[in-house]
Write a structure and sequence with these properties.
Blueprint: H1 6-29, H2 33-36, H3 40-43, E1 46-52, E2 59-69, E3 72-77, H4 84-91, E4 94-99, E5 102-110, H5 114-126, H6 131-134, H7 144-150, E6 155-164, H8 177-198
Antiparallel strand pairs: 1-2, 1-4, 2-3, 3-6, 4-5, 5-6
Length: about 200
Amino acid sequence: MSLQDPRFLEQLRQGFKKYLNPFMMTMWRLGLGAWLNAWPDVGGRIMVLIHTGRKSGAQRRTPVNYAVVEGEVYCVAGFGKISDWYRNIRAHPEVEVWLPGGWWAGIAEEVADPARRMPLMRQVIIGSGFVAPLFGLNPHTLSDEELDKVTELYRLIHIRRAEPCTGPGGPGDLAWVWPLATFILMPLVFLGRGKRGRG
């Protein structure tokens, strides 16, 4: 299978959607978003983009690779215009982002200017960690022309900060699981040690 094969790309997209994305969302909701970003050269820089379904109107959450350039946040729809989240933000550009340092509301805008697109695209691809080699990309060695050619279907998105977000539903909304699990498991650990000591 080749990365130029639409069937393979669709299988890869579905793999991300069904397996990798739910895992990353669970990590974020358990309060481990900073851990996901602890080794960006390998795991990449991962934020959560919250957007509105273009048909359902329901809130959707999608983990995406990103880069911060001069204080501004950029991300890429690597599967191009067929990406569900890309189509959603085209219909509803009002989004929320979860970053390791906090979360806020923003407006998603596509970057179309070729002079701006390539250097920003390179930074997001660098920020994708292991995903870039998976797509056959090495942003450190590809020339601008080569990178532009292999990413011509990608969509570069700028998230412009609109306002700070507060309240429930942000990063770590399931972090309460850790104290509860500790409360339940600690007595079991001590009981197990006691039984071994009596044995």
